[in-house]
Amino acid sequence: MSHISWYRMSMSKNYSVIPAMLTANIGSHAQLCAAKGALIWLERDLERQGKYNVFFSPTKGLSFFEKTFSGIGLLPAEYAVGTRVHEYGGQAIYLELLDSDGEKYDKYVVIFSSISDQRLYAINIFCTSNEEQPTVVNCGEETFVNRKSITGHDVYWTDPLPLTPLNDSSVEYRFACPVLHGDSGYLFAVCEKHETGENANVSNFVVAMPIDGSAAIDKEKMSIVEEGSDFYAFLTISKTGKYLSYIAWDHPDMPWDHTWLITNQIEITSNGIMAKSLYRLHQEDCSITQPLYGSGDTLFCISDISGWTNLYCVVSDGGSHQLRPICKNESEFAKPDWVIGKYSYAECGNNQILAVYTKENVDCLLLIDTDTGTRRLLDLPYTQLDWLSANDGVLYFTAASPYDPPLLCALRISDGAIQHTLQKKPMKKDLIATSAHYEFGVYDKSTVHALIYKPLSDSSQETLPPLLINVHGGPTGSISNSFDISKQFWTSRGFMVADLDFRGSTGHGRSYRKQLKWGETDAEDAIALALALCQDGLVDEKKIFIRGKSSGGFTVLSAMAKSDIFAGGVSYYGVYDPLSLTTNTHKFESHYFESLIGKLPGSEALYRERSIISKVSSIKSPVLLFHGLNDPVVPISQTISLATSLYREGMNCQLFTFESEGHGFRGGATVQFCHIAEWRFYQSISRER
Question: Residue 478, SS3?
Fold first, then answer.
């Protein structure tokens, strides 16, 4: 059947979610960064085929409700923002106030990583009130070739100035987590160096470079601050400029397994800048993440030393350094660092911290007094909060709710007043299926978590609805109850959707995450969830389907090999042969499977036993597979090998590949096509049964 025919069939009924809505204005904002008197963020730009532009908005002199998110896009059309450090990327922008003359003018610098060449660039900004008449030639040596008026300000800015060397065919430098040491004019960043050819290698280090662009011409001016660890993340400089801190970790650990908190003392010399190691803080079998300096050079961080990712500060005791709890409870204040540089708390001055914690898959915002330890829960209409940044008494963040896709939000700390970007609601509120938290037991009496979305249409009171179990990726990930147009696509077509947080997911404490035996416990939890919903009389036991992406695809096929309860399964760019992937994937995840399956060498037999390729004969229900041909994480060869094995077994298997897609589909046409194909797949199986 042609793709066009499928599309027409999908439009044959009047559903509340049509395929075009799957990619309309969803997830268009990210990465807020506030400085005194201004704010920047990333926003998808149609001129860049949906890639990110960096937007600047002055906030100085405006009342809270005069401050808007209608910023100025700073980049020429040929530029877009993004970093591929650790492949999954992270913080790619930074804003710093360089100079100010009271009410007359403010001078800023914006640092960003370019998605096309992975170089760091600087844009200098000169901002003044409309009432002032600045003379542009007196703003410094820069040429401010761009000008725009916004919210009572005149904003002048330069074209991007490269700060790092030009990459070539033999080496590529990637950068993330930039932070400026204003007194010296030096920029610090995480650097990832990719070498090709006979000596192909990926190495990571912390670097420093002048902000004047000289390192772009002479790479010797980009100096290494620290090397030796496999990974670095979350650079932060103390407000006095004395200290630089960050985290580091080594294979085979992932950043949620075990990390070091490293602090350096910064020294400015006639030859430039130096960072001398001051202390390295770690404890066995725990992680430290998100270091951030407050006033008085107080260093805060998040650690799971208690079994939960809670908030701490670093204290000195007789020359040694230890973690002192700021807020301890049985909830999670941090999410896994797949994306680096994303803070879940902000230091707000006046001994106050605003921090996000997760409980039963809902994000909550807590105001903490670091002196007295008092806490106040803020009542917000959101259930997912990310990218926190604070300045001038305002907290900025991205937020979503069961009814809203991600928005840019501002919260006035003094009274909790909120404003956010105006965004057209994707659906009417009464047409949105919301979730209910669902707990069920497994054979060893463990409690497992899920979110259940009841169908909104196509279901008769006389018949039970089909069930679609959704398995998140990672597998060190978690589910969220915030708005997801994909789930609404399925509930609007009569499916009950069950979002599974199998043992091994984050958000329920370290011990819950450590229970994962990948391909075993996650598959058992998927089967147990299907059985529990059947026993509760909520779904049609003959119409149970399961879908997952990346590592979730591995769980899908593992569950189908263990049980025939599933009528069919769908896998997007899934992992099917973990052993081969240990030598054929990117650096960040190259040892990940050692914690999921077993250490190598020595566990090869266990890897082969868990491999989906070895279980093909046990899979009796139809399978639908999707994969991008440019996937740097899971090679397309894995999916082709699986499909070939299923064909040889005479199984019903469909495979679709996409030339322009990688690991995680981005193209609107791809996303729409996959949902339609998936829906037709479920319909065809339902008719057969």
Answer: coil
Locate tokens 């604070």: which residue? 390
Q: Which domains does the chain have, with CATH numbers?
A: 344-413 (no CATH), 436-688 (3.40.50.1820)
pLDDT by residue (tens digit) across 406-438? 889 999 999 999 988 866 677 888 889 999 999
Amino acid identity of residue 372, one-letter, is: T
Dihedrals phi, psi of 589, to nearest 5 degrees: -105, 10
Strand duo 394-401 + 404-412: pairing: antiparallel
CA 499 to CA 137: how far, in whole Å? 58
Distance of CA 153 to the CA centre of its chain: 33
How many angstroms separate the CA atoms of 529 and 522, rounded? 11
- The Cα–Cα gap between 274 and 81 comes to 29
Q: Look-up: residue for tokens 């730009």? A: 45
Rounded Cα distance between 500 and 439, Å, is 10
By the 8 A CB rule, do 249 and 265 touch?
A: no
Structure tokens belonging to residue 181: 């040491």
Q: What is the mean pLDDT of residues 665-671?
A: 87
- Tokens read off for 228: 């030796």
Neighbouring residues of 191: CB distance < 8 A, sequence distance ≥ 6: 173, 174, 175, 204, 205, 206, 207, 222
Q: How far is CA 153 from CA 62, 71, 159, in A?
A: 10, 11, 19
Give CA–CA dist 392/385, Å, rounded. 20
Burial tier of 447 (Cβ tally within 10 Å: 0-12, 13-18, 19+): exposed
Task: Give the tens place of pLDDT for each residue, 584-612.
Answer: 888 999 999 999 999 999 999 999 999 99
CA–CA dist 524, 439 (Å, integer): 15
- Tokens standing for residue 1: 């059947």
- Reduced to 3 states, what is the DSSP secondary structure of residue 318? coil
| Coarse DSSP helix, strand, coil percentages of the chain, rounded to the nearest 5 percent | 20, 40, 40
C-beta neighbour count of 604 within 10 angstroms: 12
Phi first, then psi, for residue 158 (nearest 5°) are -90, 165
Whether the Cβ atoms of residue 466 and residue 682 lie closer than 8 Å to each other: yes
Alpha-carbon gap, residue 139 to 125, rounded angstroms: 10
In contact, 142 and 158? CB cutoff 8 Å: yes
Using CA atoms, how far apart are residues 324 and 322, in angstroms rounded to an integer?
6
Supply the pTM of this predicted model. Answer: 0.92
Q: Which residues contact 459 (CB under 8 A, 6 or more apart)?
A: 465, 494
Can you tell me which residue has the tokens 């890897």?
A: 607
Convert the pLDDT of each residue in 92-135 to its tens digit: 999 999 999 877 899 999 999 999 999 999 999 999 987 655 44
